[in-house]
Amino acid sequence: MIKAEINYFDLYDVRGGLEGIYNSIGHPPIVDVQLSSSCSHGYTPYDLETWPGTINFCYDFGTIRTNYNRSMCFNEYLYVSNQTYRNWLENRVCVKRASAFRNGTTSCPTGYIKCYSGLCISGNQCPITFAEISSTPRNYSDGSSTLLSNGRYFNIRRQADRPGIGTFSFNIG
Fold first, then answer.
1. What distances in angstroms separate CA 58 from CA 20, 61, 63, 66, 73, one per listed residue?
2. Tens of pLDDT along 69-88?
3. For residue 54, what is the DSSP state?
4. Closest CA to 101 of 126, 81, 64
């Protein structure tokens, strides 16, 4: 006799994980990034994130309530609509993706460069593997540092022993 156990789960619970996997493998690797007022030829605008917004809520006596009587709430906060972030400060994020790539190969065809284990990228530049905005330039042998208009630096790396970045998100902090 075979016993089968089926566990049910809410698909919403795994949505974030599935989106992360798709975003990492569902797009060609990013080979270059620009932060500028407009995107140069060969670069496409990139939407950073969509903030989901809020719902109406009451915040009284240290308690947040979403199901409340408006006439009994002293500190009501109205909903804020979702918002898609397209800029970092005054800079548009522009990406250049690999025009072609091959994965799971031991040798690269002509016109491709060997990058991360088994990854060949069309052209002569491996994907970006690390990006940060910092107060100081980083002098990585496998990267570059660009001074931004606010005095900070946009630092990137292309490490041959690491997989490339497929998506960007900016964390505030």
1. 33, 10, 8, 6, 6
2. 999 999 999 999 998 888 87
3. -
4. 126
- The strands making up 130-134's β-sheet, listed across from edge to edge, are 130-134, 153-157, 143-147
Nearest-CA neighbor of 99 among 25, 29, 26, 22?
29
**Maximum Cα–Cα distance for the chain, whole Å?**
72
From 149, 146, 147, select the one nearest 157 (Cα to Cα): 146
The token pair that represents 87 in the structure block: 């800029």
Report pLDDT digits (tens) over 19-77: 555 555 567 889 998 888 889 999 999 887 788 888 999 999 999 999 999 999 999 99
